């Protein structure tokens, strides 16, 4: 199976060196990751903001093994938010947090991740922006939603991510389609068993459409995380059906993917946000994404070859 091989490669120093030094690697990485450093990330935010596109920033650093790493990841977000505030970008950029990077999977990790996320929410609120909790594999969903509920008591704009391919997500969407609730809906990129997730593309697409209808009909703030033209068109039709203005929902797409579509939607006056990952840990991030679902490889390469 290719998945375990890629996952093993993500932890291999030798493979890291080989992949990092390959001439073809850096152009692909630069296409989808804003850079290794905070100044490079800020430059990407400023460039996108000038084009009318907002940003959610992801500091790469999940898959940790101890609490010290969790605290370093938390501190990286605090530094990021301080920099965003200093540049006056709080109104244009929010941050996305993977709770695994804050220690969620460690012993006692739920409380550790909650404490770290709370500090980040405090820093985000201080500069007038928000935090969205990324969703990871199905074993973390209950913990992530519980942390979301705790954070929303003090920071009600804290966002959630739902993955349409999980069988449970329609119920989760109904629970979160309430006033003040920000929900990013994605199809899902992790390799999950049939006991918890739809397996065929058709079933996943149908599930996404059902969840999208729930969110657009509700009282929350849907964030449509999709590059699929059909889902984008459906979201526009649903917004019209339910009388939503263009400021009551937004489209979200990955940095470097379908840039022309992002610009088209923004030119129509729609709210568009790019998901921008950055950090020196790009190798592990990239390989783990491939390991979760090797078909992602074809998606990334297809996007790269059609960049123009």
Automatic annotation (TrEMBL):
Reactions performed catalytically: L-proline + a quinone = (S)-1-pyrroline-5-carboxylate + a quinol + H(+)
Occurrences of domain Proline dehydrogenase (ranges): 41-299
EC numbers for this chain: 1.5.5.2
Keyword vocabulary terms for this entry: FAD, Flavoprotein, Nucleotide-binding, Oxidoreductase, Proline metabolism
A Pfam family of this chain: Pro_dh
Domain of life where this protein originates: Bacteria
Cofactor: FAD
InterPro entries given in the database record: FAD-linked_oxidoreductase-like, PRODH_bac_arc, Proline_DH_dom, Proline_oxidase
Pathway membership, UniProt: Amino-acid degradation; L-proline degradation into L-glutamate; L-glutamate from L-proline: step 1/2
PANTHER family registered for this protein in UniProt: PROLINE DEHYDROGENASE 1, MITOCHONDRIAL, PROLINE OXIDASE
The protein's name in its UniProt record: proline dehydrogenase
The species this protein was found in: Actinoallomurus vinaceus
